[in-house]
Amino acid sequence: MSVLEIKGLHVSVEGKEILKGVDLVLKTGEVHAVMGPNGTGKSTLSAAVMGHPSYTVTQGEILLDGENVLEMEVDERARAGLFLAVQYPSEIAGITNAEFMRAAINARRDDEDKMPVMQFIRKLDEKLALLDMPEEMAERYLNEGFSGGEKKRNEILQLMMIEPTFAILDEIDSGLDIDALQVVAKGVNAMRGEGFGAMIITHYQRLLNYIVPDVVHIMMGGKIALTGGPELAQRLEKEGYKGISEELGLQIEAAEG
Predict the structure, then answer these.
(1) Which family does the record claim for this protein (predicted)?
(2) Could you tell me the pTM of the whole model?
(3) C-alpha triplet 161, 54, 227: angle, nearest 5°
(4) End-to-end CA distance of the chain, in Å?
């Protein structure tokens, strides 16, 4: 079992404190949902875990199996088993989807253990079929000319090919119609198991109807304000953030990120 532990995390952006002491423990075999109002720091949390240079960790720790993630460069974090599916994936001309994914897979392997081409192709064909994606997607340049839904499916394809230890899915449901949402959920659910953990950042209960989380965290004011089971997301759907914030004696503040 692997453990991703976030302890007392404070993060600032351009001198403004966004995260104000986040504590969260994610283990393999678990799927956690992080929910909260706009601007409460959910995306800031994902960016800080992966080492985005615009986000400054001023206090706290991020540990992966006891190792200090904050001392790792972004590529080292990825090779250590962390994966971030971003809300707005970049378009990269000149590198095909297939080339990118094979390079990412092999970056996590020793020289003598690189994935053979035929094994890669078989795995790619299998995952494309599962996600209902046409084979030509593999030969298109990375996200170039992709629709929003295609980009999100492509993030899940990368997740399934790379097989990280922990995945952070930052609003992967944003802008998806119900069919695309179901496909994305199918891919994430196929990854669930003892060797994989996921943190799903979302505003809405809708996605959690298809990917049922083990744990739900509500973020408010730059902290985890409340933690519970999947029923917490259902309660949130009925009551909204205002009801929960009033119960906790918190004011919903809009932070950035």
Answers:
(1) Belongs to the ABC transporter superfamily. Ycf16 family.
(2) 0.89
(3) 65
(4) 31
